[in-house]
Amino acid sequence: MFRQIKVQEHQQDFLRILWRPSPEEDIVSYRLKTVTYGTKPAPYLATRCLLQLAYEGKNKYPLATPVIENSTYMDDILSGADDITTAKEMQRQLIGLMKEGCFHLYKWCANSEELLKDVPTENKEFLFNENDELVKTLGLSWRPREDTFMYQMNLQEVPVTITKRTVLSFISKLYDPLGLLQPIIIKAKMMIQKIWLLKIDWDQNLPRQEIENF
């Protein structure tokens, strides 16, 4: 994605790499002409270009524009529609809008074969075959065939000794960007609050009752 965004020529001198294949050879200075991954402004520049693309195409692509503005995280798009007709039109507009900015969409995934039938196989992440199971998207595990999200945690990693540090570490692993696990997470936070009131050290064993609650 970054490499599709050209840096203005008068700014390219600020993006230089010094390189030599071996200590015996002369140092060569390379001037980078596109936004480069790893530089501080790269994420902002990439996002800003997408927003500008959406703004310029809002009249021609009315369905795609809000998707770019509200359902895009860096180079991942996660969106949907209430019916297949609207979804296909949204897909068509997204492809058209992104193509105008020289961005090509890959790793297509959907819970409907209809949406994927016109997408080249090499651009698909989900093929609706017997081997398809989970797809990772924005930190979530999704089963497209069933259209369900899954949350995974390895309980085998729980150590024998349970301390305040252990509990906080496991609670922090509950990644829930959609807020679907809040009824569970709020209980976990209440548990930490109660443990905190016990005023015990970080690596001190918890009382038996708190271990059972955990």
UniProtKB/TrEMBL annotation:
Q: Which Pfam families match?
A: Peptidase_A17
Q: Which GO terms describe its biological process?
A: DNA biosynthetic process
Task: Identify the InterPro entries for this entry.
Answer: DNA/RNA_pol_sf, Retrotrans_Pao
Looking up PANTHER family in the UniProt record yields: PHD-TYPE DOMAIN-CONTAINING PROTEIN
What is the protein named?
Integrase catalytic domain-containing protein
Organism of origin is Trichonephila clavata
Q: Which gene encodes it?
A: AVEN_32190_1
